[in-house]
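_Backbone structure tokens_
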Amino acid sequence: MNTQPLYDLTPLASLLLVGLVLALGPVIWVYRRSPHQASTQRIQALRMLTLFLTFDLILFGAFTRLTDSGLGCPDWPGCYGSTSPWGANHAIATAQAALPTGPVTQAKAWIEMLHRYLATAVGGLILMLTLFGWKAWRDSRRAMSSCRSTDAAVLFSSALWATFTLAWVCLQGAFGALTVTMKLFPAIVTLHLAGALVLFALLGVQVVRDLGWAGRLPLSQGLARWLWVAAVLLVFQVLLGGWVSTNYAVLACSDFPQCQKHWWPDMNLTQGFELWRHLGVTGTGEPISFAALTGIHYMHRLMAYLVLGVLAALAWQLNRQAPWRSHSRVLAALVGLQFATGLSNVVFDWPLLAALLHTGGAAALVVTLVGVIASKKSAVAVRHVETMPASLKGTLS
């Protein structure tokens, strides 16, 4: 009988050290690659690299979930109280021998721990970005001649954003621990996925701000409203997608455009969207019905028609305005990718590559919309510029 506790903090210090060592690699690379750049430029380069690694982390988290490796190490933060599966070989072998196709195998243990290593490294990078951000602000305060320095204010704002991101990644780590210790509780796993996308969006906003794009591109008030509607719908759809994945309801409908050869299949929405329950069972402990899984899948599909339509219309409208054409093309390509990968998940029996691309496409859509929102001028600012004399408009361009 396995008496391994759910939380074993013995390897915590060594795991944090692993994350720190992994995080130092990108830091050293950035600073050696550009030794003569200003500190703010190096921080921005490191931030962009962290954004890229966070995208990788989201994909690897999806890979961990899709390969059923989420419980490859059934305790947290290590693996059977060890820093790596090497130190847990005996425990893993015993669990695998007892249940060869179960959640604990050598391969699944390594997948789970590699995910934790990468997550710790991203957390370490965000910690360094926070420290570097506050240091840059402090240095600017010492060098400036006036307490109203614009540069100091910008650096202070950047440091605050970094601090909030650090707090968020700590919260995300707590949800990662609960994902394991609550045995893939669907609501927790879905929130963990949503938290990863929020982290990705936070880093995206900071990249846009520090590239100087924030508030530069004009957008009409009506289109700005549609942008926010699209963003809200996308968030809701991402949560629905996470709910499909965490309940393993992807294959509940294996045909398209119908489901089980019906336009409105037998569904149990009340049971399917009972949020606080364990995986595979209802709140009362009874096995969840196939009609509930069908309802989870089909609601995500129906919502996809609406969301993809709104995003496609938004891309078309943005393409009509010259400053937004590059954004519109990226948005349109991602809409196409999501439709293609979502469809292939159904008709090709949930291939791993398509499922990973579907998750990656969702993350890319989130950060694209966040980038558009962060880059747009407010409608008030646009109207103000439009009423200015021509001689003054040039000074703002």
User: Anything to note?
Assistant: The two ends are 70 Å apart (CA to CA). The longest strand covers residues 7-8. Strands lie at 7-8, 76-77.
